[in-house]
Amino acid sequence: MKVTEGRCIRPAGFSAAGVACGLKPEGRDLALIASDRPAAAAGVFTTNRVQAAPIQVNREHLVDNTAQAIVVNSRNANACTGERGLADARQTAREVARELDVAPENVLVNSTGVIGVPLPMDRIRSGIPVAVRDLRDDGWADASAAIMTTDTVPKMASVRIRVDGRDFTVCGIAKGAGMIAPHMATMLGFVATDAGMDPHQLETCLREAVDRSFNCITVDGDMSTNDTVLLLANGAAGERPLSRGEIASFQTGLNAVCVSLARQIARDGEGATKLITIRVDGAASTADARTVGLSVGNSKLVKTAVFGRDPNWGRILCAIGYAGVPVDPDEVSVSMAGIPIYGQGRGLPFDTNDAIRALSAVEIDIEINLGPGNRSATIYTCDLTYDYVRINAEYTT
Questions:
Q1: Quick one: CA dihedral 168, 15, 9, 179, positive or negative?
Q2: How does pLDDT run across 20-31, given as a tens digit for each residue?
């Protein structure tokens, strides 16, 4: 099962658009995804106690596990905007519903950008009819571009799955470069499939995929107010719901699409020059492995060491030690960029120049074995550079 990264293979019955309505100084800033029929829908949202208005509205709209459209504006998060923010999110849903001739409750509303600023509703109202007119089978790239904020590249992935003579497609787009830390999804992600799915089974599949992907990425340890992943399944590839065997194949494909999107987010971290993959083995539980991996992935000292091509195993050991997971340092082993650097309770001899050359690559692996356990986890992060400070120091000014 091969994932197509960087473009979307269109699921049957779905169309997408990305248009400019004046939210950004230039470029596309309003995205729309629509199904030609009601779809089973599931969502996973940030666990941050401060939640943007669109998340509150989407929770209401997903009570019946049905949706037919997703609308997304960039540049403005519509977070911490009080009753006006809720009214604006609901008005956006009504405007899209009227243009598409669907129920407002079947429109899911999403926003990303600066916190605490009211939505410029006049611009959004003017952009919605344009987006509806521009809906196309091949509009996914435009939609992906429209949801970008500090992203430098759009993020897309898709996979075709064939099981027992049936074909269906899973396609996803995502945005995220900063304020990225797990606890659900820490970004925006929108996935569509033409498979037929029971809504409750769809939610189960989405949660597993999120746990394996978006909950395994971190750029800076900050969790946003707007983090959302939505999954729509419209059954256009065959009305019969998937069988148990077909669901297993669907889960594999969904996981692969979400992992691809998660890696793309980590690779495009604000100011980043390197994608870092942290593999933790030998843990007593998957939760322990993930906790250790995230502790290392969130370490500013580890991330700056990778940026500076510094094979500093002491920083990695410190992050393992304060993760809160019981470990015996004498049983831990660590390699960096394929070079063993720590084991049996002490640093291992290695050629520093070879290590510096290895750390010059754009993708760096850190492999950690905690010892006697048999559980593992993989975490994706990026290096921390001067540009991260510049981007975030100037974000609203």
A1: negative
A2: 999 999 999 999
Distance separating alpha carbons of residues 194 and 182, to the nearest angstrom: 28
69: CB partners within 8 A, 6+ apart: 32, 33, 34, 35, 96, 97, 100, 102, 106, 107, 108
Q: Provide the token pair at 303.
A: 């991330």
Structural contact between residues 232 and 107, judged by C-beta atoms closer than 8 angstroms:
no
* Amino acid sitting at position 73: N
| Cβ 155 vs Cβ 267: under 8 Å | no
pLDDT of residue 186: 52
Q: Give CA–CA dist 168/236, Å, rounded.
A: 9
**Spatial separation of the C-alpha atoms in residues 284 and 326, rounded to whole Å:** 9
Q: 373 in the Ramachandran plot: left (φ > 0), alpha (ψ -120 to 50) or beta?
A: beta
| Mean pLDDT over the full length of the chain | 92
Hey, what are 368's tokens? 């950690």
Sign of dihedral through CA atoms 182, 184, 188, 190?
positive
CB of 31 closer than 8 Å to CB of 71? yes
0.70 surpassed by pTM: yes
For residue 81, give both structure tokens.
């905007």
Going by C-alpha positions, the residue among 42, 77, 67 that lies closest to residue 184 is 42
CA dist., res. 160 & res. 141, Å (int): 18
Give the tokens for residue 1. Answer: 């099962």
| Beta strands 333-336; 363-369: pairing state | antiparallel
Torsion-angle region of 240 (φ positive above 0: left; ψ -120 to 50: alpha; else: beta): beta
Place of tokens 């800033």: 29
158: left (phi over 0), alpha (psi -120 to 50) or beta: beta
List, by residue number, the catalytic residues: 186
* CA distances for 152 relative to 139, 149, 315, angstroms: 19, 8, 29
Contacts with 308 (C-beta within 8 Å, 6 or more apart), sequence order: none
Find the distance separating the first CA and the last CA of the chain, reported in whole Å: 45
pLDDT tens, residue by residue, 279-309: 999 999 999 999 999 999 999 999 999 999 9
Residue 364: which H helix or E strand, with range? strand 363-369
Give residue 47's identity as a one-letter amino acid code. Answer: T
